[in-house]
Amino acid sequence: MILGTGVNGIELQLGTAYSPVESLQTRKKTAYRGDVETDSGRVTAVLKLLKMEDIAREALCWTLARMLGLPAPQAFLVQVDPSVVIGRYAGNPQNLAFGSEEIRRRFQNPSEKEMAMLRNWQFAVPCAVFDTWIYCTDRFPNNLLIDVNENCWLIDHDEALPNYVSFDLESDSSLFQILREGRLESELRFMKRSAENFSEKCRNIDLEKVQRLVDGNSPHDTFAKQIADHIEFLKNRAEILPTLIAKEFSFRQTQFVLDDDVREEMERYE
How do residues 130-158 score in pLDDT, each as one tens digit? Predict the structure, then answer.
């Protein structure tokens, strides 16, 4: 059962990790699996031992995703006693980790069936727009989970909102790349309209409320400055998000698969 999956479930839960904590093989080697005790009970979660600035990114992006109605597993801010993590300490002096309720399966070496499911996923375009907004370029395949019911879930945002990126820098969403491939021109036009509609939802989000939620749910005040800087980035980037989305679809028509009626019209003039 995924906790707090409703659109209104946007509270970062606080918890404490219990021994034993199992190390997971990940690219950064900072992830662990363990039981977390929260006010709602005990749950198995994936814990990431990160610097506080990266936990701030995770917390902010998770809150944004939930406020936008995107599927993201319940998140936790977890106290991890260094003694339960053999050979490694938490990535910050507060021994705080970012946790996500565990969904076992990632899109690793996805099958044709899984790729088809992803291309028809109802949140695929909104997620691609969201990634463009937060400058997340590595969503697929590693940062997208699939559960037993073939629902997809967004995870891992500690590399989003990078400090070195200006708000107007173009990004190339890995999801947009997948979604555009082999599409008919009419499908691309429809996809572009859907992306534009969701970009308006991003532009209209109450970022001050987002900031209050993240700051209010954090047990430490070290988030405040980092969150404020990211909020300013998001405000500025939201204003040009329609332009960034348009550029995702500004490819030469010869790259598109043409509809039959469009192809016939072209042949008529050849």
Answer: 999 999 988 887 788 888 788 899 999 99
- Domain contains 154: yes
Q: 1 lies in a domain?
A: no
Dist CA 72 CA 75 (whole Å): 8
DSSP letters of 164-197?
T--TT-----HHHHHHHTT-BHHHHHHHHHHHHH
For tokens 């989000």, what's the residue?
205
pLDDT, tens digit, for every residue of 33-42? Answer: 999 999 889 9
> Domain limits at 195?
13-260
* Number of domains making up the chain: 1
- In angstroms, rounded to a whole number, what is the distance separating the alpha carbons of residues 184 and 182? 7
User: DSSP assignment, residue 253?
Assistant: G
Q: Rounded to two decimals, what is the model's pTM?
A: 0.86
Decide if 8 is inside a domain: no
Residue 26 CB contacts under 8 Å (≥ 6 apart), including other chains: none
2 within some domain: no
